[in-house]
Amino acid sequence: MRFVSTVIIGALIIATPSLLRAQRTGQTADAKEAPPTGEMQTLIKALAGHWSLKLKFEPSKETPRGLDGTGEESWHASPEGLTFTDEEVFTAGSQKMIVVGILWWDMKTKEFHAMDCSNEIPNTCDIKGALNDVVVHWTGSELTIDEKELSEGKMMTSRVAWSDITPNSFTETGYLAPQGGAFQKLMTIHATRAAAK
How many domains does the chain have? Predict the structure, then answer.
């Protein structure tokens, strides 16, 4: 309890100058920042909600016939659209994947940024990668996230693209490419809107 009280008091001390400035100018504390950008709003509108997934992994050395799977994906925005979070859980064969992705709009650089967390990452969340290795593009109809990563000792670029987005469905496709090489499709996910849990 002592720790919690200290954190709350510290937060109040940090917030007080902003609250006083807002009070002097007649603004509320929430009004000091601009509302979410048009880019963030359109992304939230396109993908927010709960989705049912059908997965198809392409044939590989480990799975010569490919692999099918099922899962769920939920997208939800934080208050005021500050962040947009994607939570995915799916199974394919004996493997269960849990992925959490967080996207945000950097008001200084006017760019999207992202960080992913997964049960496949030793440290769970790739904080360093979020700063240096992730590139996010949103065209208004397609979301693409590229990330540099080591795969079998080689530096590769993974790409996940959300396309063919409609109010009730979208396609999510995963790719991998060597540096300077062409992307190879690894998996395709077909999503359909499902009832919220």
Answer: 2
